[in-house]
């Protein structure tokens, strides 16, 4: 993977319905880090799928020998409480914020920067519930 590559991880159920997506970008091989973003359609929110999807993604990303990651990071708006809750549940740490970075419906919100280091990943996984077996994650690569 090079810095310009985007990879998409898609979480599907057994019937191959797409439940959510994770996109990785800004891979930095020198610093062994990558940013990721995630999306769940409204119909799939408030069911714990975000936690499951990111937890699966963490397992894939931190065990990928090619990426050899030390850090995964994500940003979110300060009004996105569900996203903040998921990241903090998975042991991501708040690194900082960009003040009044987003304008959403004429309101100003900070951009929050969260990260998880490889050494924190083990405790993040250990301190969460086991994954449900009904969900699978397949890997698709964008052209």
Commentary on this structure:
It is a single chain. The chain has 143 residues and is of the alpha+beta class. The protein is built from three helices and seven strands. A seven-stranded mixed beta sheet has the order 5-6-4-3-2-1-7. The chain is globular and about 45 Å long. The two termini are 12 Å apart.
Ordered list of secondary-structure elements with their pairings:
Blueprint: E1 7-12, E2 18-28, E3 33-39, H1 49-62, E4 71-77, H2 81-89, E5 93-104, E6 107-117, H3 118-126, E7 136-141
Terminus-to-terminus distance = 12 Å
Put simply, the count of helices is 3
> Beta fraction of the residues?
35-45%
Low-confidence stretches: 131-143
Structural class: alpha+beta
What is the overall pLDDT average? 84
For the largest beta-sheet, the strand count, sense and barrel status come to: 7 strands, mixed
Shape: globular
Compute the CA-based radius of gyration: 15 Å
Number of strands: 7
Q: Could you state the order of secondary-structure elements as H and E?
A: EEEHEHEEHE
- What percent of residues adopt helix (DSSP H or I)? 10-25%
Q: Strand order, biggest sheet? A: 5-6-4-3-2-1-7
List key phrases describing it.
143 residues; alpha+beta; seven-stranded mixed beta sheet; 22% helix; globular; disordered C terminus
What is the gist of this entry?
It contains three helices and seven strands; from the N terminus they run E-E-E-H-E-H-E-E-H-E.
């Amino acid at each position: 993977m090079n810095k310009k590559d985007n990879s998409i991880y898609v979480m599907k159920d057994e019937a191959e319905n797409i439940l959510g997506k994770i996109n990785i970008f800004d891979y930095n091989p020198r610093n062994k880090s990558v940013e990721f973003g995630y999306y769940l359609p409204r119909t799939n929110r408030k069911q714990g799928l975000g936690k499951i999807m990111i937890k699966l993604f963490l397992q894939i990303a931190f065990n990928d020998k090619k990426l050899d990651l030390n850090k995964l990071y994500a940003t979110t708006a300060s009004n996105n409480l569900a996203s903040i809750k998921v990241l903090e549940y998975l042991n991501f740490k708040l690194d900082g914020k960009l003040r009044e970075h987003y304008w959403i419906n004429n309101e100003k919100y900070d951009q929050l920067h969260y990260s998880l280091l490889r050494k924190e990943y083990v405790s993040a996984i250990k301190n969460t519930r086991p994954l449900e077996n009904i969900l699978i994650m397949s890997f698709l690569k964008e052209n």
